[in-house]
Design a protein that fits this description.
The complex is a heterodimer of chains A (about 160) and B (about 775). Chain A is built from 6 helices and 5 strands, in the order ββαβββααααα. Chain A has about 160 residues and is α+β, with helices and mostly antiparallel strands. Chain A folds into 2 domains: about 70 residues, Ubiquitin-like (UB roll) (Roll); about 80 residues, DNA polymerase, domain 1 (Orthogonal Bundle). Chain A has a 5-stranded mixed beta sheet. The model of chain A has no long low-confidence stretch (mean pLDDT about 95). In chain B, α6 packs across α7 and α9 packs parallel to α10. Chain B has 3 domains: about 180 residues, Alpha-Beta Complex (Aldehyde Oxidoreductase, domain 3); about 325 residues, Aldehyde Oxidoreductase, domain 4, CATH 3.30.365; about 140 residues, Aldehyde Oxidoreductase, domain 4. Chain B is built from 20 helices and 30 strands. Chain B is about 30% helix and about 25% strand. A 7-stranded mixed beta sheet of chain B has the order 3-5-1-13-10-11-12. The chains are: A alpha+beta (about 160), B alpha+beta (about 775).
């Protein structure tokens, strides 16, 4: 079958099988920034925003996502124009192997949209579905706090 | 322009944060074959016959591999240096299966679904034979044997497949028996640690394609690209020159990806079909068929003299290596060689260790590598002894741990599967680590105080200390090469393998420090067997120390060439390198690196400023750590609330403190998770019943306590700019520290890990 998606603000049309997950379709079509950690819906490596809602793309049938807006980590920012959250992850030393990072950054983006100034417990709760085996989460939590600060500073600068 | 000691951003972190950096499975292949493996449903069986005819009729099935049509070269998958210290007990596919999860066949098909379908259509006739699951009985005369006498070792070491014995380690210093007789009291205790999975979030992945001249290009999530190339070549009888192994970004390893067990399969499919190949495991396959932390049963017997403390120390270790002997010898010997030298003032020492086969999942390298299992026993035992002596354990640790200028006979007696290398400790700030850690956890305010927390909880604190190594002395080698570009930047090529640890960054910092330039003028390329010089790879906490020394040597050679060219340009007598320039001291004139590069490449007597260097380590300076746990234990349920965990570590000079901290924090949380909740649950057939993150729980953000990390700088004179290692050590402390803290709180000891509420509850009930 065939279906169209709006991925990072670009309309794309792909051929896929009816049972394919959104993760499979994205990865088969160059969106390898969406990682696969086991297709169990338990590690958060394949997170994307689907019409603004954070989902594990391995648990979503591609056919149910047609016509919808999908944001991957590349839609948040790129190497040439990184988002402040991405810069914060770099600065905080929150990236080790980096395999969980795209999912972590999307979860952070989603959290800060909802709660711009989260408490440590709110950060932990929101990132609970994202597994990381390298960092022990310490610097990831630090990166989320730093992201919140950087975004606030940026907003204030914008106001001036 | 200091680079070393600075928190330089990890060089690949922006590429990773923006999803641009590629992992093995992110590289596109043209029309690849997809592989799926058939695993044994039985723990121990002979394969009478295998019939693939039904599977072959499925549209899209291209090839099926099994014992009848594949090379039967004995090898080890351990991914170690050559000749490997692990027994040669493995073939690609055998006519016998030895654990539930052993590989039986592989299907290569046009797509993944077809491969899965075909795997289920293979008919295998098994003759089930008796299994052995209890390592305590593996070596019994009447126990079923896993391997026959064709299995062998390639280094001179004890190995007896007819006794299910995969390895043996025996050392004795002084006379323990005499020591026990002369002691005032004897303490004997058994400690057992459990299976664990590495749980790298990236699944084990291999991709193979042919380059324009028909050579095999192997992309792999490997910790050991050079060993992988060698093993592929040997097992499949393919010349090394026809194989190129590349490690792209890798999503965590922790020892699990040292194992070379998939690459030969993928290359064999490519060889037979002249097609590109994709082989990526599922999470379930990683749990049931890849490698685990070796469970270990350790008996410690100590004789203590009241005036001089431990007089006689005996360890008897039984390691369960599972169905194959990957790292069977060296993990076991590491238990002795990483623990025994720490208390170097004991005169009588004996270590007896056996690694035995069982029909259970295969053990392998896992961060900590035997030291983790050993320190669970050692640090609990020391807690018991200190309490018996009415001594403060911190004082005991500080009095008896090895100090600068001291040695231990164990260094020489026990090495990596063979005799070791004598060495004197040149840097050790362990006593300071203990003091700073104790202050951070408020040790004296909490220890033995049984402070009540709320209505039902009691607070306890526990401590552990440990040491690791920095590479394997007189075995490991790393190398580097460099060349200069027109703008005064440098390409740095290293065989070293960055697993996410940050080695690409710290190796760049070391080169930058030597040349007195900023780190962003170093462009690093690592882990490509065609382009980078040899390195053993990422294991044994070796990269900073061994590869780092190679980079330092290489950069010094470059500096010499730059100085010579600069001197020529300046007609100077005395010149020095400073901040990206060569400066003539008498005239205060200077030329920039850029000018030197243009001069050497285009102006006169042209040549490329370039160099290479290797480092072969003669010793392995240990890093040291003191780790403290604070727990609140519920006296009604045994539930542990982890409050705080402190690590104070001497890793020499931290090249990049932020990255070093990250290594400690990651190892700590892995260790806490192992101590409290990770567990393999087996059914009666030795089949893992919980091969999923749903039922094999690892720590997430909500599980972590307050984590505090203190880096205590020391100067290791043999290390690059004073550095030792940091990758493994911090995983040793969580389990013994928690066990000791639980005792401090509620007075019960958990000798069998993991440390669960149920066990604490039952012990508390027994005590009443």
């Amino acid at each position: 079958m065939e279906g169209s998606f709006v991925i990072n603000n670009q309309k794309r049309t792909f051929k896929f099988k009816s049972g394919d997950t959104l993760l499979t379709v994205l990865r088969n079509n160059d969106h390898t920034e969406v990682k696969e950690g086991g297709r169990e819906g338990l590690c958060g490596a394949c997170l994307v925003l689907l019409n603004g809602v954070l989902v594990n793309s391995c648990q979503v049938l591609a056919v149910s996502a047609t016509g919808k807006n999908i944001t991957t980590v590349k839609g948040i920012g790129t190497i040439h124009t990184p988002h402040l959250i991405q810069k914060a992850f770099v600065q905080a030393g929150a990236v080790q192997c980096g395999f969980c990072t795209p999912g972590m950054i999307l979860a952070t983006y989603d959290l800060l949209e909802k709660i711009p100034d989260p408490t440590e417990q709110e950060i932990k709760k929101h990132l609970d579905g994202n597994l990381c085996r390298c960092t022990g989460y310490v610097k990831i939590i630090k990166a989320v706090k730093l992201s919140s600060i950087l975004l606030k500073e940026n907003e204030e600068k914008g106001k001036k | 322009m200091e680079s070393v000691g600075k928190n330089i951003d990890k060089v690949d972190s922006l590429a990773l944060s923006t999803g641009r950096a590629k992992f093995t499975d992110d590289f596109p292949l043209t029309n690849p074959l997809h592989c799926k493996i058939l695993y044994s449903p039985y723990p121990h069986a002979e394969i009478i016959d295998i019939d693939t005819s039904r599977a072959e009729t499925i549209n899209g099935v291209v090839d099926i591999l099994h014992y009848k049509n594949t090379p039967s070269k004995l090898h080890t998958t351990a991914g170690q240096g050559y000749p490997e210290p692990s027994p040669y007990d493995t073939v690609l596919f055998d006519n016998k299966v030895r654990f539930t999860g052993d590989r039986v066949a592989l299907v290569a098909a046009e797509d993944e679904d077809t491969a899965i379908q075909a795997v289920n259509e293979i008919d295998v006739q098994y003759r089930i034979v008796e299994s052995i699951f209890d390592p305590e009985h593996s070596m019994d005369i009447n126990s079923p044997k896993l391997h026959d006498s064709t299995r062998h070792v390639v280094i001179p070491t004890e190995y007896d497949p007819e006794l299910n014995m995969a390895a043996a380690v025996d050392i004795s210093i002084g006379n323990v028996e005499k020591g026990f007789i002369e002691s005032d009291f004897i303490t004997e205790q058994t400690y057992s640690s459990h299976f664990a999975s590495h749980c790298a979030i990236e699944l084990h992945s291999v991709k193979v394609y042919f380059d324009s001249s028909g050579r095999y290009v192997v992309l792999s999530s490997t910790q050991v690209p050079f060993h992988a190339r060698r093993i592929i070549g040997k097992v499949l009888n393919i010349p090394i020159k026809s194989i190129r192994v590349i490690k792209p970004r890798i999503g965590g390893g922790f020892g699990g990806k040292q194992e070379v067990f998939l690459e030969p399969l993928a290359v064999l499919v490519a060889k037979r079909n002249k097609r590109s190949v994709r082989l990526v495991l599922t999470r379930k396959e990683v749990f049931i068929s890849s490698r685990t932390r070796h469970p270990m049963r350790i008996k410690i017997k100590t004789g203590v003299k009241k005036e001089s403390f431990i007089n006689s120390f005996e360890i008897n270790a039984l390691m369960n290596t599972g169905a194959y002997g990957s790292h069977a010898l060296t993990v076991l010997s590491n238990t002795g060689s990483k623990i025994l030298p720490l208390f170097n003032k004991i005169n009588n020492i004996k270590f007896t260790g056996r690694s035995v086969y069982t029909n259970l999942p295969i053990g392998g390298a896992y961060r900590g590598y035997g030291a983790t299992q050993g320190y669970f026993a050692f640090c609990q035992h020391l807690d018991i002894l200190s309490r018996k002596m009415n001594d403060d354990i911190l004082k005991v640790f500080k009095s008896f741990h090895i100090k600068e200028g001291e040695t231990s006979p164990v260094f020489e007696a026990l090495g990596e599967g063979k005799e070791g290398v004598s060495q004197y400790i040149k840097s050790c700030k362990l006593s300071k680590c203990i003091d700073l850690g104790a202050r951070e956890i408020h040790w004296y305010e909490k220890r033995n105080k049984k402070i009540k927390v709320g209505k039902t909880k009691v607070k306890g604190v526990g401590v552990s200390i440990s040491m690791q190594g920095s590479g394997i002395p007189k075995v490991d080698m790393g190398s580097a090469s460099m060349k200069m570009n027109e703008d005064g930047s440098f390409n740095l090529f290293v065989g070293a393998t960055d697993l996410g640890t940050g080695s690409d960054t710290i190796l760049s910092q070391i080169a930058a420090e030597v040349l007195d330039i900023s780190t962003d003028n170093i462009i690093i390329l690592s882990s490509d067997t065609d382009l980078t010089p040899f390195d053993v790879g990422a294991y044994a906490s070796s990269t900073t120390y061994i590869s780092g020394n190679a980079v330092k040597k290489c950069a010094l050679k470059i500096k010499e060439q730059i100085l010579k060219a600069g001197k020529e340009m300046l007609s100077g007598v005395l010149c020095s390198v400073e901040n990206g320039k060569v400066i003539a001291q008498e005239g205060k004139t200077s030329v920039s690196f850029e000018e030197i590069a243009y001069y050497t490449l285009y102006s006169a007597n042209q040549f490329q400023i370039q160099a290479s260097a290797s480092h072969f380590a003669l010793e392995s300076p240990p890093p040291f750590i003191a780790q403290f746990a604070e727990v609140d234990v519920d006296i009604h349920t045994g539930k542990i609330h982890l409050v705080k965990f402190v690590s104070a570590v001497d890793c020499g000079k931290a090249i990049n403190p932020n990255l070093a901290e990250g290594q400690i924090e990651g190892a700590v949380v892995n260790g806490l998770s192992y101590a409290l909740c990770e567990k393999y649950i087996f059914d009666e057939n030795g089949k893992m019943k919980n091969p999923s993150f749903k039922n094999y729980k690892i720590f997430s953000t909500l599980d972590i306590p307050e984590i505090k990390t203190i880096i205590v700088d020391s100067e290791e004179e043999t290390g690059p700019f004073g550095a030792k290692s940091i990758g493994e050590i911090a995983i040793n402390g969580p389990m013994p520290s928690i066990a000791n803290a639980v005792y401090d709180a509620v007075g019960v000891r958990i000798f069998n890990s993991p440390i669960t509420a149920e066990k604490i509850f039952n012990k508390m009930k027994e005590k009443k």
